[in-house]
Amino acid sequence: MNIYWESFKTFFKIGIFTLGGGYAMIPLIEEEVVNKKQWVSKDEMLDLIAIAQSCPGVFAINIATFIGYKLHKTRGAIATTVGTALPSFLIILAIAMFFSQFKDNPYVAAMFRGIRPAVVALIAVPTFRLGQRAKLNWYTIWIPIVCALAIWALGVSPIYIIIIAALAGYLYGMYIKPTES
C-alpha cells in the first residue's frame, strides 16, 4: 500500500476519534505510531512531543507534521498534517451547518456534559506517561508542580516558564551534569 496513503489514513483515524484537542491525541498517536506501526520509538515520541509543544501552532498539527516529516520528508508531513486536520475541519463544518437546529436540544447538551470527564482523562493519562518517560522521580517531581502552580496561581506567563526551564536545563547540562559522572 502507498506509504503516504497509509500515513494519511492513520492520522485521519486519529483525528476523527480525538475529542479534547491535541493532548488528547497523544494516547491514540502513541498506540498507532509507536506500538502498532513502530514508525517511531517511545523515546523519539517523547522528543517529538517536547518539540511539538515548544513550537508555535496547534499541537496536533505540529506532532503530525513532525512524525510525517521523520517518516517521508515533505510529502509525509503533508499527508499526516492533512490527515490530522481534515476530520476536525469536516466536523466543525457539519456542526456549523446544523448547530442552530441542535443547540437547545437537551440530549445534545447531555452528550457534551458526558464527554467532558472523558476528555479530562484523555489529557491526564498522557501527562502521567510523559512524566514517567521523562524520568520524573521524588527528587524532580517538584519542577512540573511548581511550574503549574506558578502559571495557575500566580499568573506567570508560560513563556517565562519555558525560558527559565531552557536556561536551567542548559546550565544543568553544562555545569552540573558533567561533574556528577
Entry summary:
This protein has helices at residues 3-16, 22-36, 42-54, 59-102, 106-133, 142-152, 158-180.
Would you kindly provide a written description of the structure presented here, covering whatever features stand out?
This protein is mainly α and 181 residues long. It is built from seven helices and no strands. The protein has helices spanning 3-16, 22-36, 42-54, 59-102, 106-133, 142-152, 158-180. The protein starts with a helix and ends with a helix. The mean pLDDT is 85.
Secondary-structure blueprint:
Layout: H1 3-16, H2 22-36, H3 42-54, H4 59-102, H5 106-133, H6 142-152, H7 158-180
Helix pairs in contact: 1-2, 1-4, 2-5, 3-4
Count of runs of 4 or more consecutive helical residues: 7
Unreliable residue runs:
none
Order of helices and strands: HHHHHHH
Tell me about the largest β-sheet. none
Silhouette: globular
| Mean residue pLDDT | 85
- The helix-and-strand class reads mainly alpha
Q: What integer value in Å does the Rg equal?
A: 19 Å
Helix content: over 70%
Task: Summarize this structure as a short list of keywords or feature phrases.
globular, mainly alpha, 181 residues
